[in-house]
Amino acid sequence: MPPQDPMTSREYVGQISSSSYPDIKQDAGAQFVLESKGKWWHAGYHLTTAIVGPAILTLPYVFRGLGWGLGVFCLTVMGLVTFYAYYLLSLVLDYCEKQGRRHIRFRELAADVLGSGWMFYFVVFIQTAINTGISIGAILFAGQCLQIMYSSLSPHGSLQLYQFVAMVTVVFIVLSQFPSFHSLRYINLGSLFLSLGYTFLVVGACIYAASSKNAPPKDYSLESSGTVSAFNAFNSISIIAAIFGNGILPEIQATLAPPATGKMFKGLLMCYTVIFITFYAVAVSGYYVFSNKSSSNILKNFLPDNGPALAPEWVLGLAVIFILLQLFAIGLVYSQVAFEIMEKKSSDTTQGMFSKRNLVPRIILRSTYMVVCGFVAAMLPFFGDISSVIGAIGFIPLDFILPMLLYNMTHKPSKTSAVYLVNISIIIIFTGAGLLGAVSSFRKLILDAKEFKLFSNGVSD
């Protein structure tokens, strides 16, 4: 990995005080939402919540499209590339800060380094699509978790999915009033433990199912058609990219108390330790037991249409509760960019965070945002297919291309150096993978379109 530029805390503080960042002092989004008070482990909590979520339950399905060898290979490579990319991005942020240009937003960093007005709006569009999409997805799938628990207690109950989505939205409205990203640190610590909790429950359920007399037959063969197999493979790669992506690392680094140099690397190590445990455990155990019958949500495999449950219902129920609780944390984390954009325009930094002047607009704007996300979630319960498209066209540019490009432009490594060649290779490979993944995701969206129904009572698989 490229070395960090050494700078002592005294040198750092002297340089920061000389520039003083007058714009940030007048920036309500920076002062209120992205306040810089956190430690490196707080950044680790935020990163883990942004990356390790219920989407990991899709990994056995991903392996279904790739097979054992390619599945493990792609998961490992994507993990290494994203860790490297996030590390480079943190170095770019450190570099700009030492030059007197502290960037707390991805869009401003990209526009500054690339020197192009259109890049600012490109990043705004992509990041907004990702963050809003994840917020909508969190509400939708939290509503589905409530529906699953309700159905198990009252199989013939009359409540519909959209009603559970409405309940979840109310909870999100309340939780969205946490004033800053930093104020979510303990919620995100809880999210970290929840991800470990349902991972161990799923692995235990897989071991139980594999040893059951009703264990499903194993078949690890791929599609016989080369074309279909290729589409499935690229769709699986897009899903892995979306699972590893976060797109908000600059905003997370902005929550660190200065000097931030070196702290993000420690946060990344914490996050990727959790990633290593959870991703491989779920992928390997789920695919081993259910092979090419793995569902896009592995929990569904434990409840076959015919026959008894393949795992104790209390284990599955506890896993669903853990997932439900973590979805609230995930939705809040990805809403912070929207909150920051809104409050940059609506709040007044000359008055306190909890003054009437700032509190009333915050409550109204955040509540409205959550209501809109909840309405879309209830109306489009097939949002998973849309999210895969967003992942292909959004996460890959933000997390697999821009960090390498920004590093090359700021640190200017020699064109014959290993760092430069690795970065260029990653840009080229993942540009191609992103385009092919987008095509595969659009194809699946079109094929599944006949099953889509507005305000349906079930989430499309």
UniProtKB/TrEMBL annotation:
Query: Which controlled-vocabulary keywords does the entry list?
Result: Amino-acid transport, Membrane, Transmembrane, Transmembrane helix, Transport
The answer to whether the entry has keyword Transmembrane is yes
Q: Name one GO molecular function term.
A: amino acid transmembrane transporter activity
**TM region positions:** 43-63, 69-96, 117-141, 161-179, 186-210, 230-249, 269-290, 314-335, 363-383, 389-407, 419-442
Q: Which GO terms describe its cellular component?
A: membrane
Q: Name one Pfam family in it.
A: Aa_trans
Any one Gene Ontology biological process term? amino acid transmembrane transport
Q: Where in the cell is it found?
A: Membrane
The record's section on InterPro entries has:
AA_transpt_TM (IPR013057)
Boundaries of each Amino acid transporter transmembrane domain copy?
37-442
Q: Main localization of the protein?
A: membrane
Protein's UniProt name: Probable GABA transporter 2
